[in-house]
Amino acid sequence: MATVNGLPASVEQMAGLALTNYGHFTTMRLDGGGIRGLPLHLDRLERDCAALFGAPLDRERVLHCVRQEVGRQAGPLIVRVTVFDPALDLAHPAGKADPHILVTTRPASALPPSALRVRSFAFHRDTAAVKHVALFSQLRLRRAAQLAGFDDVLFTDPDGRVSEGCTWNIGFLDEAGEVVWPDADILPGVTMRLLHKALEGSTTREVRIAELPSMRAAFATSAAVGVRAVLGVDDLRFPDGDSALAPLREAYAALPAERP
């Protein structure tokens, strides 16, 4: 099911998005009728709409559209809100924008999700701080990683500094069991931000591929899956694996969820 501005999406509207591939989005998990970090998701939509379209976005209008799509469902659902202009002119994209709100849903997977083995690639997303819909480059690398026998891809810079995953953030547990987030040019995910605030001693610093053997464990975060274990990067396997992440999952589960 998909709605645009609270009404059933038309073929013409979807064609506009598919052919221009210009817009931004946020992905949320609805559980028990609530969404963790809902204000942060709305903040992101407002900020990215100003960056991509030079236009304001009405938060209440977004929530109305989400309610129209979700109805009385309590979840678990993955709710994606995409902001785009179906009339955007490919040849003249600088024209006055009329951002529309596309809301789609799909069933959410069970928690906790299975662990990941990831392959590293040197790559930097264009306009990393914006959650835009141009996913070709990172999906191409995710495909390459999977064809090589891995589950997903982890990005670094050319000097081996770790940044983020394909559609998720990464964190580590150091030898002392403290949470470390890479200091890099990334898209700061809502789940990462919530955990960073909730976990005492959580720090952000430069993390290089070469130092990963000294880490106890690694994990991926996203709104869709919460906290997901990363078993290994390239040929490295983390010793503590999934067992060390229970306190992180408990901290995330304890965060309040708000009704849209």
UniProtKB/TrEMBL annotation:
SUPFAM superfamilies: D-aminoacid aminotransferase-like PLP-dependent enzymes. The keyword Transferase applies. Keywords: Aminotransferase, Transferase. One of its GO terms (biological process) is 4-aminobenzoate biosynthetic process. One of its GO terms (cellular component) is cytosol. Gene3D superfamilies: 3.30.470.10, D-amino Acid Aminotransferase, subunit A, domain 2. GO terms for molecular function: 4-amino-4-deoxychorismate lyase activity; transaminase activity. Pfam families: Aminotran_4 (PF01063). Belongs to the class-IV pyridoxal-phosphate-dependent aminotransferase family. PANTHER family: AMINO-ACID AMINOTRANSFERASE (PTHR42743), AMINODEOXYCHORISMATE LYASE (PTHR42743:SF2). This is Aminotransferase.
